[in-house]
Every structure is written in structure tokens, then in C-alpha cells.
Design a protein that fits this description.
Blueprint: E1 3-8, H1 28-36, E2 38-42, H2 53-60, H3 71-78, E3 88-95, H4 106-114, E4 121-126, E5 129-134, H5 143-152, E6 166-170, E7 184-187, H6 193-201, E8 204-206, H7 219-231, E9 236-241, H8 243-249, H9 253-278, E10 281-284, E11 289-290, E12 297-298, E13 302-307, E14 329-330
Parallel strand pairs: 1-9, 1-10, 2-14, 7-8, 7-9
Antiparallel strand pairs: 2-13, 3-5, 3-6, 4-5, 10-13, 11-12
Helix pairs in contact: 1-9, 2-6, 3-6, 7-9, 8-9
Amino acid sequence: MQRILVIPDGLAETPGPLGTTLSSFTPVALNAIARRGAVRRVATTPEGLAPGSEVGLPLLLGWPPSGVVSRGRIDAAAHGLTEPAGAVVHRVDVRHDDGRPWPELAPTALSLLHGLDEALHVQHLEGHRMLVWGHRDPTLPRRLDLDDLGAANGVEGTHDPDDLPRFQLWPDGETPMPILDSDTVVVCAPRSTMAGVARLMGAEVVHPSGATGRPGTDIAAKARAATSLLRDGIHTVVVHVGSTDEASHARDPQAKRLEAQKIDRDLLAPLAALVLDLGARLAVCPDHGTDPRTGVHLGAPVPAVVWGPGVRASGPNVVTEESVAHEPVVAGPWDA
């Protein structure tokens, strides 16, 4: 039986007085799938690990991490880079004090990181993200040095005493195992975390034109790519949409809602019709939650649905955090 997994990155949230993105509008296609499928919660963040795509994405693809996952190695794979054997690999970000990305400071941060140690290799990935590898964990420069050099280079806002720029060091750790093959194809944005995870795990990767991973990405192009792959007989197609998570990190609840609406209209609606035609199985499951008001990742089990032949309809008729609060928690997206 063919399968298709849709991963709206960071879509889940914690219910509160203002509700959540999923409860803020009526997703016609998702609700239709919910009425026919099994609605439940999926534990995408193993106990003891921090929530994030480097943990949730490989788990949804069948490799549950047992320890910290190396974001640096995933990003290297996403960008087509190969680190030397035995190297320690880290991603390093430059951020505002409250965690927001600070891409304008990237050139300054890069120059400071280059001066750390001649034995370290430093490469700018994009935006506020950099990759560092060598034979040891790097010691990051002081925040005041980044502040002073940024101001000297004309970067505005670095002398705000309440918002000193800071480095974020992502730890090295486990690498997702190559347990997949060409029977699994992942549709995603180029150079995304999903692209790196898919390549490390052995899946094929497809990047439709217009897929950026950010708000405004061409979600309909991903639906067309997935449709073509399924009609060509690919066994498992995974469609990852990163724009909901990026909108959350930008602290933009309205943009996140608009992206969720596009996922329902431009992706889930055509895929649901295709699933009926092919007799395939469809699962919709975020990789983790992200609060669009703070930009913080959330590790609670996420609302999800699976539908198709052999799946008994169960649970609520809508997929929201409130509706699944008392539903069973399962280990993966295909568990009914």
C-alpha cells in the first residue's frame, strides 16, 4: 500500500485563552480526513531530549533518536558538505538576546569565528547560520566582542543593553541512520533541515521550484510533485512544509495561520482526492510544536491523523490540540 506523510513543521501549540493556530480557522480538508480517520497524539520528542526538527523529523521517518542529534551534521548534508572523518561538527547561530535570528550580524559573527582557531573550519550556511568543525568543541567569542565589532561595522541595535547579540552553539551528537532507500521520496525545500535528514537517512529528495521553506513558499508545487511521485508508483512520499515553523520563529501568528490555511487548501485537499483514487494511506503529523508568540519549540505530543484502508475511524472529528487532549499517545505517524 502506498503511503503519504505530510509534516507541517512546528504547527502544534499549547492551548490557552487565545486558542491555537489549528483552532483559529476551519480546515475543510483536514476536518474531512479527521472524520474518516484515526485522530490521536504522536510523541515526536523522546523523553529527555529538547524538541526540534533534528529530533522530530528523523523520528517521523522511522529513526527515533536516543540522544542529542547533531544539527551541524544535518545542515552539512542539507548543503552538500562533507565534514572530515573524526571531526566535531557544530552549527552556530547569531541571535538577539530573546532568541530571534540576527542575520545582519552574520558577517561580523563569521569574522569572529574565523579568528577562533586556525585548525577550525568555519562556513556560512545562510542567514544567521554557520557551520564549524574541527578536532574539538569551539570556545565562542564574548558577546561584548560581537557587540563592539558589529557596531564598528555599522550594524544597528547592537549597543542596546537589553539586547546584546549572542551566539548559539548546537551540540554535536547522533547522526540519523541510513535506514531508508529510493522507495521513500521526500518533497521539501532545498538546504532545509528536512533535506539533510532525508539524505542522511538514505531517502531520495525532490525540491519543487518555488519551495523556500519560508512563509510564501509554493505549497501547491509540493502537492503537484507528490502527486506525480505517487502516480509513478513511489511507495512512500513525505511532504515537509517548513513555513509554519518559520512564521512561529518570526513571532507572527497571522502568518502562521495563513500558511496553515494554504496547507489545508493547496496540499491536503488535492492529496486527499488522490488517496481515494489510489487506495493509499495518508498521515498528517507535525514534527513538534512552536509557540508563534515566543518562537519557542514545544515538546508535548502533537495532534495528528492517519486515514486510509485498514484504519478504523476513531477520536474527534477535528484535529486540534484541545480536541485530542485526552486521546491516546502513539509512537509514530502510522500508528492507528
